[in-house]
Amino acid sequence: MKRRRRVKQIFPLEERLVREAKELRKRAKELPPSREREALLRKARHEETTAHLTAWLMSSGPRVPI
C-alpha cells in the first residue's frame, strides 16, 4: 500500500492563494492580449475569490444561513 506524502504547510491557505494570484497577474501582464492572458487573469480572479471566501468562512463574525 502506498503511503501518502504529508506536507506541513508553512503559510496559511489565504496567503498562498493571494501569492499565486499576484504571480499569475504578473505573468499575464507580460503577455500580449490573447486567450492565454485571459486564462491567467481568470485563474487569478478565481484564486482571489477563493481566498476571500476562505477568510470569510474562517472568521468568527456573524454568518448568513446557507
Notable characteristics:
66 residues, 2 helices
Would you kindly provide a written description of the structure presented here, covering whatever features stand out?
With 66 residues, the chain is an all-alpha fold. The chain has a domain at 13-57. The chain has helices spanning 13-29, 35-58. The radius of gyration is 16 Å and the shape is extended.
Alpha plus pi helix count: 2
Instruction: Give the terminus-to-terminus CA distance.
Output: 40 Å
The share of residues in extended strands comes to under 5%
Structural class: mainly alpha
Proportion of residues in helical segments: 55-70%
Rg, Cα atoms, Å: 16 Å
The low-confidence parts are: none
Mean pLDDT: 90
Overall 3D shape: extended
Largest sheet: none
Strand and helix order = HH
In total, the number of strands is: 0
Give a short summary of the structure.
With 66 residues, the chain is an all-alpha fold. The protein has a domain at 13-57. The chain is built from two helices and no strands.
Chart the SSEs and their pairings.
Elements: H1 13-29, H2 35-58
